[in-house]
Design a protein that fits this description.
Blueprint (H helix, E strand, L loop, with lengths): L13 H23 L2 H22 L3 H5 L6 H26 L8 H29 L4 H14 L5 H21 L3 H18 L4 H6 L4
Length: 216
């Protein structure tokens, strides 16, 4: 992943264009699968497919994992800042959930909190590693990269406008944290935790039951 393209070279390499295009297609597929009620099958395919691609490149290209953000570098500061953000967001959702009557701890939250971070890590790898980083490496200003990254993350949650608004805001914060620390681990883990909390405490929904139990 070139950090500083040489003068005269294209702003983005053909591989970067291809990866950003693949991310866009993955997002379109997510929207279609959600509309058709096929998310339970689509999500493992995305995790497996992109996991295989990233794994192959990591095994064949030196420093690929580090450049992408799967690294121990800056892990402490990255977790510190992500924890502060997650704590503030969780406190807000607790207040909202208590006021709306949705603040509850369900048994289904346990598998969500265990498995959702894997999906969250995949999403952050796609948005931050394949979009935010490519845009930044291509020479765009952080003031342009951050809103584009945020819109990318938020758009895949349309037409749920509450979720779209929340993920757009989270996407902006995460893009800033990624550009600062270049570490994906805390972003993916907290993405899963915050996502589970938001569905249950803010939206009053049970995503585990919706995907696997036939709930509405």
């Amino acid at each position: 992943i070139p950090i500083n393209p040489a003068p005269g070279q294209p702003r983005f390499t053909s591989r970067q264009w291809a990866e950003m295009g693949a991310v866009a297609l993955t997002g379109v597929g997510h929207l279609a699968a959600s509309e058709a009620g096929l998310s339970a099958g689509y999500i493992p395919v995305v995790i497996g497919g992109w996991g295989g691609y990233v794994g192959y490149r990591g095994l064949t290209e030196e420093d690929f994992f580090r450049d992408l953000g799967f690294t121990s570098e800056n892990l402490g500061p990255a977790f510190r800042d992500a924890s502060i953000l997650a704590g503030v967001a969780t406190a807000g959702m607790v207040v909202y959930g208590a006021a709306s009557g949705n603040l509850r701890l369900e048994a289904d939250m346990l598998p969500l909190l265990v498995l959702y971070p894997a999906w969250g890590l995949t999403q952050q790898m796609l948005v931050q590693g394949m979009v935010t980083r490519h845009l930044s490496d291509g020479g765009l200003s952080p003031y342009a990269v951050t809103p584009i990254s945020a819109a990318t993350f938020g758009s895949v949650h349309i037409p749920n406008w509450e979720l779209t608004a929340a993920t757009t805001g989270l996407g902006a914060a995460y893009a800033g944290l990624y550009q600062k620390h270049e570490n994906l681990w805390p972003l993916g883990i907290y993405h899963g935790v915050l996502g589970a909390e938001f569905y249950v405490w803010v939206l009053g929904r049970n995503p585990w039951e919706e995907m696997f139990g036939g709930g509405e």
